[in-house]
Amino acid sequence: MEYIYAALLLHSAKKDISEDALNATIKAAGLTPDPAKAKMVVSALQGANIEEMLKNAAMPVAVAAPAGGSAPAAKKEEPKEEKKSEEEAAAGLGSLFG
């Protein structure tokens, strides 16, 4: 991946993407260059139109807002009333007078 980034950096700087340039860029980044990887990247990019590749690269798609303008309001949950049986209610009252 570093070699792709190095190639893009060289391309944006309008420099020739060669094995030596890639190795020098990798070394400048503090990494150990691998001549085999540099050779592979250079041969893969031989004759490639990098500008066209960048234009056609997949871009993340933003999620569109729902039609109608505004998002639906969050549904509020009503607190549920606990239903007690008559016996439970009577037992509770009995403890008051007890």
Describe the structure.
This protein is mostly helical. It has a domain at 2-55: Arc Repressor Mutant, subunit A. It is 52% helix and 0% strand. It contains five helices and no strands. α2 packs across α3. The longest helix is centred in the C-terminal third of the chain and has 12 residues, at 86-97. The termini are far apart. 9% of the residues are buried. The mean pLDDT is 80.
Query: What is the mean predicted local confidence, pLDDT?
Result: 80
Task: Give me the CATH architecture of the domain at 2-55, please.
Answer: Orthogonal Bundle
Give the H and E element order: HHHHH
SS summary, helix count? 5
The poorly predicted ranges are none
CATH class of the domain at 2-55: Mainly Alpha
Please give the radius of gyration in angstroms: 34 Å
* Shape category: elongated
Q: What's the structural blueprint in terms of helices and strands?
A:
Layout: H1 2-12, H2 19-28, H3 35-45, H4 50-56, H5 86-97
Helix pairs in contact: 1-2, 2-3
Descriptive tags:
5 helices; 0% strand; Arc Repressor Mutant, subunit A; 98 residues; mainly alpha; elongated
